[in-house]
Write a structure and sequence with these properties.
The longest helix is centred in the N-terminal third of the chain and has 43 residues. The protein is about 40% helix and about 25% strand. α9 packs across α12. It is elongated, with a radius of gyration of 25 Å. It is built from twelve helices and 18 strands. It has two domains: about 300 residues, 3-Layer(aba) Sandwich (Aminopeptidase); about 110 residues, Alpha-Beta Plaits (2-Layer Sandwich), CATH 3.30.70.360. The protein is α+β, with helices and mostly antiparallel strands. A hairpin with a 2-residue loop joins β4 and β5.
């Protein structure tokens, strides 16, 4: 009898899910042409971080048409859309809006030819990180949830965030009082397109998904002089060369092999003439990890190693190196395990087990982690939305052709199944989290 009852429950749950999914699919099919047009428009008109004026207007207009209460210009060009639908949990869905200073080389008919001013210079602008796709799926999700209000209860909190690429956007919106004004969400959800997964698939991680990001400037000081008399100087160029090699031991010899850490020197700036030894050299570093303990340990190690190099060279105390940790630290994205498992269960049913892939965490950064790192400790989950066209993936597998990575001038998502899969999966998990009685 118990077995029969269990089978009946599974059967009726399957019928419910089928009916629910059929409703989602009909909305997606009815809206697809409109959403594809929105996507190409967004792709053609990218805007840089903190310059998302027209982009934010477009998203605000779409949310208003979908029936949301919309707040514009929230911390710069941020948009907040709220749809209240009775008693129930609050679910935050976030998209980013900004693009990158790159000349697009995709050859697409709708390729960007946009230009903008950055630091006083004219630059080309491109959506090379998929934020145009994020916004399109976000918009389609907004329409679908509004149309399916009879099937869920609670509050949908939609966040269109500026300045993700510079790491300022999420912090700005939280500092402005996002949660105190609109309510602390019970869950936070987001996508990032994947340049390695085929369109129609979704990738997930349990726990760490993306790394923390810290920018560090190190000023190595010495005693400058004539290049012909190096023995009368303390050469900061040589000290910097020693430092670049020595600080790599922070990863290879001081960080547990069970932890992840990256220390990359991205720039070395110093000197101005062939035969002049300068007084100082500046190193620009990026630090990546999944753990605050590892991050602090790495910064302390930078201070210790560079100071030791200076002492060994006879640098006077007043000229010891400066290790300057820049503002704008971005915490890691740590996916809540229970929330991730729940989302995986939903998408296994809605898009098929064969299209749901467990992937490795990456050392790239993403400020979505701030929504979960806040004092409220909101459970968050970021999923990877496959965006590679089936043809490109087939060429990659069969012929070894390279897939353009994120931030490449050749990267562009494949619209059709990427948009449809993104909406289907996001709407499915939101409705599961906010099931109507």
């Amino acid at each position: 009898m118990k077995k029969v009852l269990t089978l009946a429950i599974i059967h009726f749950a399957g019928i419910f899910l089928y009916c629910q999914q059929t409703g989602i699919d009909k909305i997606i099919e009815d809206k697809y042409s409109y959403l594809e047009s929105l996507y190409t428009n967004l792709h053609q008109s990218p805007e840089l971080s903190s310059q998302e004026n027209l982009t934010s207007q477009k998203i605000a207009d779409e949310l208003e048409k979908a029936g949301y209460e919309v707040t514009t210009n929230f911390s710069g060009f941020g948009i907040v859309g709220v749809l209240k639908n009775g008693e129930g949990p609050t679910v935050l869905i976030r998209t980013d809006m900004d693009a990158l200073p790159l000349l697009e080389k995709t050859g697409l008919e709708y390729a960007s030819r946009q230009k903008a001013t950055l630091n006083g210079n004219e630059v080309d602008v491109m959506h090379a990180c998929g934020h145009d796709m994020h916004m399109t799926v976000f918009t389609g999700t907004a329409y679908a949830l509004s149309a399916l209000k009879e099937q869920w209860r609670g509050t949908v909190l939609l966040i269109a965030q500026p300045a993700e690429e510079t790491g300022d956007g999420a912090k700005g919106m939280l500092d402005k009082g996002l949660f105190s004004r609109f309510g602390t969400p019970d869950y936070g959800l987001a996508y990032h397109v994947s340049a390695e997964l085929e369109s129609g698939k979704i990738g997930y991680c349990h726990g760490p998904a993306m790394a923390s990001v810290s920018s560090v400037n190190i000023i190595m000081k010495g005693l400058g002089g004539h290049g012909a008399y190096p023995h009368k100087t303390i050469d900061p160029v040589v000290l910097s060369a020693r430092a670049v090699l020595a600080i790599q031991t922070l990863v290879s010899r001081e960080t547990s092999p069970l932890e992840s850490s990256v220390v990359t020197v991205g720039a070395i700036n110093g000197g101005y003439k062939h035969n002049v030894i300068p007084d100082e050299v500046e190193l620009l570093l990026t630090l990546r990890s999944y753990s605050e303990e590892v991050r602090k340990q790495t910064i302390e190690g930078l201070e210790r190693i560079t100071k030791g190099i200076a002492i060994s060279a006879g640098v006077p105390e007043e000229k010891y190196p400066e290790v300057i940790v820049q503002d704008g630290y971005t915490p890691p994205v740590i996916n809540d395990i229970d929330l991730t498992n729940r989302w995986v269960h939903v998408i296994n049913e809605s898009i098929g087990y064969e299209n749901v892939v467990q992937v490795d965490p990456v050392m790239a950064g993403e400020d979505f982690g701030l929504y979960g790192d806040s004092e409220e400790e909101v459970p968050i989950c970021l999923m990877w939305l496959g965006a590679v066209s089936p043809k490109k993936m087939q060429d990659h597998i069969e012929n070894g052709t390279k897939l353009p990575p994120l931030h490449s001038p050749l990267f562009a998502p494949y619209p059709n199944t990427t948009i449809k899969t993104g909406i289907r999966s996001m709407v499915g998990v939101v409705m599961d989290l906010m099931k109507a009685d």
